[in-house]
Amino acid sequence: SDQRNAEPPRSLSVLVNADGRYFINDREVLRTDVESVKRTIIQVAGDDRSQTVLLRADARTPYQAVVTVQDALGQLGFRRIAIATAPEAQQ
Predict the structure, then answer these.
(1) Which residue in 9, 38, 14, 39 sits closest to 26, CA to CA?
(2) Strands 81-85 and 22-24
(3) Is residue 71 a contact partner of residue 77, using CB atoms and an 8 Å limit?
(4) Structural domain tally of the chain?
(5) Closest Cα partner for 53 from 7, 30, 31, 22?
(6) 15: β partners
(7) Which residues face 81 on adjacent strands?
C-alpha cells in the first residue's frame, strides 16, 4: 500500500503538573480557568477533534485541575482521551 501521502495520526498532549498548571503540547496555559484552557487547546489543536488526547497528571496534581481540563476537552468535542498517571516518587 502507498503510505507516502498519509499523515501520521496527530495527538495532543495535555500535562497538569503538581501545582495545577496546564501545558498543552508544552505550551503553558497562563490562567487556570476553563475558558483559558479551551482557548489554548484550540490554538494548538486547530479544528481536529478526532485526534487522541494524552492527559498526563502528576500523582500530586489537584483533582480539580484534572476535572477542569477534562471539562474543557469535553466542551470542545474531544472524545478520544487517554489518561496517564505518573506514580509518586519513592523516597
Answers:
(1) 14
(2) unpaired
(3) no
(4) 1
(5) 22
(6) 23, 56
(7) 53
Q: Is residue 6 part of a domain?
A: no
Residue 45: Cβ within 10 Å count = 20
Residues 6+ apart with CB under 8 A from 34: 68, 71, 72, 75
CATH number, domain containing residue 66 = 3.30.420.270
Neighbours of 75 (CB within 10 A): 13
Q: Does residue 90 belong to any structural domain of this protein?
A: no
Which residues does 32 contact at the CB level (< 8 Å), separation at least 6?
A: 20, 21, 22, 65, 68
pLDDT tens for the chain, residues 1 to 91: 444 454 555 789 999 999 999 999 999 999 999 999 999 999 999 999 999 999 999 889 999 999 999 999 999 999 999 998 666 655 5
Its domain, for residue 18, covers: 11-85
